[in-house]
Amino acid sequence: MQNTTTPLDAVTQAAVLAEPVCDDSGQLLLPAGTTLTDSMVASLRKRGVETVVIAGAEAQPEPAMDLQARHARVDGRMKCLFRHALRTGHVNPLLHMVSRYRLEDSS
User: Fold this and answer.
1) N or C: which end of the chain has fewer CB within 10 A?
2) DSSP 3-state assignment of 73?
3) Do 22 and 51 touch, CB atoms closer than 8 A?
4) Cα 84 versus chain centre, distance
5) Tally: H helices and E strands in the chain
């Protein structure tokens, strides 16, 4: 079993986050290691979160997305992962390399 990106609708109660969950602006919503409850899943759904990375989950098929939706999803994820660098104004070349890698990987 491995960390798996899982559609929010397929998340079960007591699933553990493998990665932090951030909103579109990069604000941390839930840290990695959080055990999800039904109310947390409902709150994430209200905030527009569609997928989360679950620790030790079986692979779930991701919903089909068009190119623009994939770009938006990757951009939001990068803002979350690089939120500290973005706040200080230091744009890291690693951000661009990881973004490009994730877009190629999701094709």
Assistant:
1) C
2) helix
3) no
4) 16
5) 4, 4
Q: What is the pTM of this model?
A: 0.57
Complete DSSP assignment for the chain: -EEEEEEGGGPPTT-BBSS-EE-TT--EEE-TTPBP-HHHHHHHHHTT--EEEEEEEPP-PPPP--HHHHHHHHHHHHHHHTHHHHHHT---HHHHHHHHHHHHHT-
- φ/ψ (deg, to 5) at 15: -70, 145
Closest listed residue to residue 22, CA positions, set 41, 47, 46: 47
- For 48-97, write each residue's pLDDT tens digit: 888 898 987 554 455 566 777 777 777 777 777 777 777 777 777 777 77
Do residues 55 and 30 make contact, with C-beta atoms less than 8 angstroms apart?
A: no
